[in-house]
Write a structure and sequence with these properties.
The chain has helices spanning 46-50, 61-64, 69-77, 91-96, 103-113, 137-142, 165-178, 198-206, 231-250, 267-279; strands at residues 21-24, 56-59, 84-87, 123-126, 152-155, 181-186, 222-226, 256-260. The protein is α/β, with parallel strands linked by helices and 305 residues long. Strands 3-2-1-8-7-6-5-4 form an 8-stranded parallel sheet. α9 links the parallel β7 (222-226) and β8. The longest helix has 20 residues, at 231-250.
Length: 305
């Protein structure tokens, strides 16, 4: 039997807390200053202000480079204990080397984020279309060797995994065997409206167009929802996710719901709208006010619905 990739895995908080985790793709976004962040917010303030409203974030920064140990310590100091970072594995591991001969890189990545302790949520392994069903055995050999005290979720983008219900069922069965979750990318809202600006055209070009199968694996299913810049276009799809998450929440799961938009300026109001819809059917707690709302009242365009 091969040894685990790292010998000293992170130990999580033994308490089992279950609720909704809602957030955006990132926190370091200058365009939110004045309409989500306070008007005087500086980059050093962004994470603290972001985590005063949302309780999770996609850690896209780790996809591109390994954070410094100092940054990791700062992230821990700036967030509440219940906040969760859902980091992505570095692209050198998932895209460039495609899980082959990556023990050293994997150990380095996991050790770097381990000081965050219980703030580490499900860690996402996002793959390109290059990982097809024909190449999937490399994934099933890699996953069992990861430290069991971290949580993981897999996002696959080759359409062959989602062509038929039985292929999705087979994928979920294998993920259950390894104890990993599945990331569901939903771009249906994005593709349901007109593309009238550059950001939307670019999002349509870059985001995968895959069938959405709303099954889940594990206790922390992850949905990455890509909305359309016109709020009304998103309503049908947001309400559909309310229908899916309601039985999941009542079954005791802790779903993660990340909201994207083509320019992401509108991600916070879209997340707020989803929370409003979901809370009408479930006890998911109040969504705290935005940091800028301590300065002046902000009328959300989504309040019209």
């Amino acid at each position: 039997m091969r040894r685990p990739i790292i010998p000293d895995p992170l130990h999580e908080d033994p308490k089992d807390r279950r609720n909704l985790f809602l957030g955006c793709p990132f926190w370091g976004f200058k365009a939110w200053v004045g309409n989500f962040y306070r008007s005087d917010a500086q980059p050093r303030d962004y994470l603290k202000q972001y985590s005063s409203t949302f309780n999770t974030v996609e850690g896209n920064t780790t996809f591109y480079s390994l954070p410094s140990a100092e940054n990791v310590r700062r992230w821990k100091d700036q967030t509440p204990k219940r906040f969760r970072f859902s980091f992505k594995f570095p692209q050198t591991i998932t895209h460039q080397q495609q899980l082959r001969n990556v023990d050293r890189e994997t150990a380095q990545f996991l050790r770097r984020i381990a000081p965050l302790g219980e703030r580490v949520g499900p860690i996402m392994l996002q793959f390109s279309r290059a990982l097809s069903p024909a190449d999937q055995e490399v994934l099933w050999k890699f996953l069992p060797r990861l430290p069991k005290d971290f949580k993981y979720a897999v996002e696959l983008r080759h359409p062959g995994f989602f062509r038929r219900p039985e292929t999705v069922a087979a994928l979920e069965a294998r993920l259950r065997e390894t104890g990993c979750g599945r990331v569901i990318m939903d771009t249906r809202a994005l593709r349901s409206g007109k593309a009238e600006d550059h950001a939307t055209h670019e999002a349509l070009r870059k985001k995968p167009d895959l069938p959405v199968h709303p099954g889940f694996v594990g206790n922390s299913p992850i949905i990455r929802f890509v909305g359309h810049p016109e709020p009304a276009v998103n309503e049908t799809w947001l309400r559909e996710w309310v229908l899916h998450l309601t039985p999941w929440l009542r079954a005791g799961t802790s779903p993660y719901f990340f909201v994207h938009c083509p320019n992401n300026i509108d991600a916070p109001p879209l997340a707020r709208r989803f929370h409003s819809l979901l809370s009408s059917e479930n006890h998911v707690g109040d969504l705290p006010p935005w940091p800028c709302e301590g300065e002046h009242p902000v009328a959300s365009q989504l309040e019209l619905f």
